[in-house]
């Protein structure tokens, strides 16, 4: 079992914050987060591209190249793999592993479950040690049908997924029921209106992702700060010093 997989088998859930650039990842690592993911929305928005439209393959690979040699374990959100062809998705996985990524998040977008399973098979055949977190969007994009969710998760487990992800699910009874039927760790997307991390751990959840929350909060803080200054108010909230942000970037060779 890899070090990243080990983090999914502890008594407390792995809280996986998500970065969208080098500074956000380095700052999170400096706060003691040993594993960091990427947010597809943050990567897409920063590049002026749509999220979930297979438009950010190059931007995602470029970010992974920047982050892959960091002091933390890196898991990369690859949307649906940027292709419907399992072999092409496997090639993306190879490229990510080559630059230091230890895991990927692969979403089905409520498309064909059998095609998604084929992508998982292809990735695990190409890079056996890469942690594949297989996401189903039955709650995120669909109506949260429990049978369909279980059917898809079972297919993804059988295909070799190392973990499964059900964003949008916050009901405690449904979470607990899913955990009982799984043979791999369950990942839940944190919601401020949903269960706490501690409660999710009590329910059997072993990974709690923050998704695009940090990116959206950062953008919200920037807008509030600009509005406060324009209105003559003193900005609130934490503000890292210039020197602190500068220190997040590696020194240039002399």
TrEMBL record:
InterPro entries according to UniProt: ICL/PEPM, Pyrv/PenolPyrv_kinase-like_dom, Pyrv_kinase-like_dom_sf
GO MF annotations, alphabetized: lyase activity
Key words of the record: Lyase, Pyruvate
Keyword Lipoprotein attributed: no
Name of the protein this chain belongs to: Isocitrate lyase/phosphoenolpyruvate mutase family protein
Organism: Streptomyces sporangiiformans
Lineage, opening ranks: Bacteria, Bacillati, Actinomycetota, Actinomycetes, Kitasatosporales
């Amino acid at each position: 079992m890899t070090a990243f997989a080990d983090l999914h088998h502890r008594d407390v859930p792995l809280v996986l914050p998500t970065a969208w650039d080098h500074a956000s990842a380095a700052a999170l690592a400096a706060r003691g987060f040993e594993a960091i993911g990427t947010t597809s929305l943050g990567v897409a928005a920063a590049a002026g591209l749509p999220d979930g439209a297979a438009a950010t393959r190059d931007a995602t690979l470029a970010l992974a190249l920047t982050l892959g040699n960091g002091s933390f374990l890196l898991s990369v959100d690859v949307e649906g793999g940027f292709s419907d062809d399992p072999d092409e998705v496997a090639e993306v996985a190879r490229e990510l592993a080559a630059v230091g990524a230890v895991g990927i998040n692969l979403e089905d977008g409520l498309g064909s479950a059998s095609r998604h399973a084929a992508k998982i098979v292809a990735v695990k055949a190409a890079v056996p040690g890469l942690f594949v977190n297989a996401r189903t969007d039955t709650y995120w994009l669909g109506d949260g049908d429990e049978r369909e969710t279980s059917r898809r998760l079972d297919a993804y487990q059988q295909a070799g997924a190392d973990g499964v992800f059900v964003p949008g699910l916050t009901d405690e009874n449904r979470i607990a029921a899913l955990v009982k039927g799984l043979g791999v760790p369950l990942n839940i997307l944190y919601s401020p209106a949903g269960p706490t991390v501690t409660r999710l751990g009590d329910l059997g959840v072993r990974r709690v992702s923050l998704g695009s929350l940090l990116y959206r909060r950062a953008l919200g803080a920037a807008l509030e700060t600009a509005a406060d200054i324009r209105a003559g108010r003193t900005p609130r909230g934490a503000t890292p010093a210039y020197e602190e942000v500068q220190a997040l970037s590696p020194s240039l060779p002399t």
